[in-house]
Design brief:
Layout (H helix, E strand, L loop, with lengths): L2 E8 H12 L4 H10 L1 E5 L5 E6 L5 E7 L4 E8 L4 E7 L5 E7 L16 E7 L6 E7 L3 E5 L11 E8 L3 E11 L5 E3 L7 E6 L3 E5 L4 E8 L2 E9 L5 E9 L9 E3 L18 E6 L5 E6 L7 E8 L4 E8 L11 E4 L3 E6 L3 E6 L10 E4 L14 E5 L2 E4 L4 E7 L1 H10 L3 H14 L4 H13 L9 H14 L6 H4 L15 E7 L4 E2 L7 H13 L13 H9 L4 H5 L1 H19 L15 H21 L5 H30 L8 H7 L4 H20 L7 H12 L2 H10 L6 H10 L4 H12 L3 H7 L6 H19 L20 H15 L12 H20 L1
Parallel strand pairs: 15-19
Antiparallel strand pairs: 1-30, 2-3, 3-4, 4-5, 6-7, 7-8, 8-9, 10-11, 11-12, 12-13, 12-14, 15-16, 16-17, 17-18, 18-32, 20-21, 21-22, 22-23, 23-31, 24-25, 25-26, 26-27, 28-29, 29-30
Helix pairs in contact: 1-2, 3-4, 3-5, 4-6, 5-13, 6-13, 9-12, 11-12, 12-13, 13-15, 15-16, 21-22, 21-23, 22-23
Length: 853
């Protein structure tokens, strides 16, 4: 099962043995208690209220405390009544309940006849008072507000009474001590109340955040409202938003306001349509709506993302052969809402990043099965990540099963499934090191099978977002969360249409808790036309400009360039200061100058981006965030390599070039590591992100081990691998001048970038190196020649190696003149114009011999 259902409460397991111990052991009593035992409410702290009936003609209400795992009798009627709802105040001193009679009859305990439905307020500590709150002919529900503990003195309790006559009242009950009898009701007369809503057709109570949602029909559509209740009994109308949905205004639907007994279900109420609202901890507010289809082959439901100003209508092709579909369930899993239709499908809808279909996960057939559940009884979300199966009286905690999700990833052959799973694992699940290692192994094994996205890019981008999004408020809006900003592929069996909806109208000025995050979401969406997300691609142009410039003293003195270099130095120092115990990948802390430039450039660009939007964050905090971003990015690449090295038990001596060329070729493990590093290089290039120090040298050494010389040179020329100073020094120092090695050295020397060639040419005493030295020296002298007037030397000053070749003679005379007037910059190499002449003559002779052959 992809969803993990853990039983946190079971009436028959946690309550029935206790109920049986309270009454007669007669089998008839036990059988009736078992049959009539059911849940009637779940309070904010997780306390569960339940009721049962006995053969003696009584009806009892009990409480189960999940923390203490104890049951407690709250109240008992001496006759059978059908309890609809019940609620208890925070102090566990007052019990409110509503019930109905099957006939209009006078109860013995009241002096006057009562209506069919009654709402009572009962003191349970001590039991000395019963007040009738409502006596009407339509169903009513009761719900105490549950403020945070110890915020206000316990001198008043507040009770919501919801009537199917389409109004909601709030009662204010004064309580206090009297004659040492504990907390008692002080209201001697009628209890004061406020009318807080009326003319609604649907209402839902959010017990976690103490919010009431309700819908009022208006013209062709309806208006969605929300009321926030506070610990002191005050309430505020928070928002309203028009919705283009049609609800039957003749009947009232209530969600999480009691659970109908079997005798009451469907009594003049809508039982087929399903509308629920869910919130999540990041400020998301979503409305899910389902109406039974006319065509059983097409299942349609709508998800309105009120925090994003859009709605999506999903249409699913079903395979049912029966005359009636089973009931759909909406299950809140915080960042996801699962839409579950038994025997058909399970759709995990991403409520945080809902833009593209590839962020949602759709399962059908066997993949969508949830075992151990009652298929005829829909699941009702009562608390975040908790659902109740009303017909069985079982409360489940719901989470996404990481093992099953990873198993589904390994078995899936479709890119949209893979991307949805990666997105879910990397952004939302609590990844343990072992599971993360398995995920990286899957990524490395499937680099070539994912056609529409790069799993390495997704791993790096999503991991960075998750790691840094909690650093400060709004940061999650400024960093990319996925590597796939666009998606055009259709998902088999699912069609989706997106509509723009009105943005909610907020009616409060101060935002706290959930509403602060919700307001942040709205502000971001209102300005979504601006590019908030940082993109590595924005820096590509600047980076290309930097690497195209000659590395001159003038460039290094440029203020902007110095800023980039200083930032790069900070990154390298931070990387060097991190001592990673147990890492086995042989990465040296060598500075590859292009990567160093890119590190510094990324630091500068990201600082500018964050400073532009995070005005409330101090500069040193932004500097820390940027440093964490770049270092974490480099660490993620190292983490991938670490998994590869450990999995394939690579030889630590891979860095020894002498062994590389003596063995002639790499083994399968080295080929695999080389392939992964090629993919990392390609991903980094397309993201314009730097690679960790030593990466390119290691990559090049693996290429030398695994590829023939021709292929190696082709990879160098095409930019797949990059020549580094460390590699060239190892090449020239560790390899002798055998025919094969000399050919390799010559090929590498001819391909060296200018800045590296200047540093390593003196390490190899060879004609190629001498030619390089001569060219550099000639270039230097000719540059000086253009800056001064030169007197030509007389023929008597000719070199002893003089040959009657006028172009060469003229060049040597010019260089000799410049050389006499300036200090020799290559003095340590004993270079002069005569040396250049000698090199030129040798090279000419070699060329003539080749032509003669």
């Amino acid at each position: 099962m992809l969803l993990d259902f853990q039983v946190t409460f079971n009436l028959h397991r946690d309550v029935l043995p206790w109920v049986s111990a309270q009454g007669s052991p007669v089998s008839d009593t036990l059988e009736k208690s078992s049959r009539t035992l059911r849940i009637i409410n779940i309070e904010r702290g997780g306390n569960i209220l339940y009721t049962w009936k006995g053969v003696e003609g009584f009806t009892s209400i009990g409480l189960y405390d999940p923390l203490a795992k104890k049951n407690e009798m709250l109240y008992s009627f001496e006759s059978e009544v059908n309890i609809i709802s019940a609620s208890m105040n925070n102090e566990k001193t007052l019990l409110a309940l509503s019930y109905y009679h099957t006939t209009y009859e006078t109860q013995s305990r009241h002096s006057s006849p009562v209506s069919r439905y009654l709402a009572l307020l009962i003191e349970i500590k001590p039991i000395n008072n019963v007040k009738v709150l409502k006596a009407v002919d339509t169903s009513i529900r009761v719900q105490f507000l549950s403020p945070a503990e110890d915020v206000y003195p316990h001198n008043e309790s507040h009770l919501l009474v919801v009537s199917e006559e389409k109004y909601i009242d709030q009662f204010h009950i004064c309580i206090g001590e009297e004659d040492g009898k504990g907390v008692v009701i002080r209201n001697m007369g009628p209890i004061p109340k406020d009318r807080i809503a009326e003319d609604f057709v649907w209402a839902q109570w959010d017990v976690s955040d103490q919010m009431l949602f309700y819908i009022v029909p208006k013209h062709a559509g309806c208006v969605f409202h929300c009321i926030q209740f506070y610990p002191d009994g005050n309430f505020k109308y928070v928002l309203e938003i028009p919705l283009e949905i049609s609800l039957d205004d003749q009947c009232v639907s209530l969600v999480n306001l009691g659970y109908d007994p079997p005798e009451e279900r469907g009594r003049g109420r809508i039982s087929s349509q399903n509308l629920q609202v869910f919130t999540n901890k990041t400020g998301g507010l979503c409305l899910f709506y389902y109406q039974p289809p006319k065509d059983l082959q097409v299942f349609t439901y709508m998800a309105a993302f009120l925090h994003k100003g859009c709605s999506k209508t999903f249409r699913i092709s079903t395979t049912t052969e029966s005359k009636q579909l089973k009931k759909v369930s909406f299950i809140n899993i915080d960042n996801y809402v699962a839409v579950y239709l038994p025997d058909q499908f399970l759709h995990l809808i991403n409520t945080r990043h809902s833009e593209l279909m590839c962020y949602h996960l759709f399962l059908a057939a066997e993949d969508a099965r949830i075992s151990g559940m009652c298929c005829d009884c829909p699941l009702q979300t009562v608390l975040k990540t908790h659902v109740i199966e009303c017909c069985t009286g079982i409360l489940f905690s719901v989470s996404i099963n990481q093992e099953q999700l990873l198993k589904f990833l390994t078995e899936s052959r479709r890119d949209w499934d893979r991307l949805a799973v990666l997105h879910c694992i990397l952004l939302y699940l609590d990844l343990q090191p072992q599971l993360e290692t398995r995920l990286i192994e899957w990524i490395c094994d499937n680099l070539s099978t994912c056609l529409t996205f790069d799993p390495i890019q997704e791993f790096i981008v999503a991991s960075l977002h998750r790691h840094l999004s909690l650093e400060t408020m709004y940061l999650d809006k400024l960093l990319p969360y996925t590597s796939v900003p666009f998606w055009s592929q259709d998902i088999e069996g699912v069609s989706c249409t997106t509509d723009i909806t009105d943005m909610p109208i907020l009616k409060i000025g101060m935002f706290k808790g959930f509403w602060e995050k919700f307001h942040s979401e709205l502000e971001y969406m209102k300005q979504a036309q601006q590019r908030f997300l940082y993109s590595n691609h924005l820096q590509r142009r600047d980076w290309c400009r930097l690497i195209s410039e000659v590395d001159t003293i003038e460039k290094r003195n440029d203020v902007y360039q110095r800023n980039i270099l200083e930032n790069a130095k900070k990154v390298l120092q931070n990387m060097d200061s991190r001592k990673y115990v147990g890492r086995i990948v042989p990465l040296n802390q060598d500075e590859e100058y292009l990567q160093k430039d890119l590190m510094g450039l990324m630091m500068v660009k990201l600082k500018d981006h964050l400073s532009q939007h995070l005005h409330h964050v101090a500069k040193n905090k932004i500097d820390k965030i940027v440093m964490d971003f770049v270092c974490k990015q480099l660490d993620l690449v190292c983490q991938i390599l670490e998994v590869v090295w450990r999995r394939h038990v690579l030889d630590p001596g891979v860095l020894c070039l002498e062994n590389s060329f003596r063995d002639q070729s790499g083994n399968s493990s080295e080929y695999f590591a080389f392939h992964v590093m090629c993919q990392i290089t390609d991903a980094a290039s397309r993201m314009c992100m730097p690679l960790p120090p030593g990466f390119q040298t290691l990559h090049l050494i693996l290429a030398a081990r695994c590829l023939p010389l021709g292929n190696l040179l082709h990879y160098i020329d095409s930019g797949v691998v990059t020549l580094t100073e460390t590699f060239v020094i190892k090449l020239l120092k560790e390899l002798d001048d055998s025919e094969t090695n000399e050919k390799l050295k010559c090929s590498i020397i001819l391909r060296l970038p200018e800045n590296i060639c200047e540093k390593v040419h003196s390490l190899w005493d060879h004609a190629i190196s001498n030619n390089v030295i001569a060219r550099k020296y000639a270039k230097k002298l000719l540059f000086r020649l253009n800056q001064r007037e030169v007197t030509r030397p007389s023929p008597n000053d000719r070199s002893p190696l003089y040959i009657n070749f006028l172009p060469l003679n003229y060049l040597i005379m010019m260089l000799s003149e410049v050389e006499d007037r300036a200090l020799n910059p290559f003095e340590e190499d004993n270079i002069d114009a005569a040396f250049l002449e000698e090199i030129a003559l040798k090279q000419t002779a070699d060329l003539l011999r080749i032509q003669q052959c």
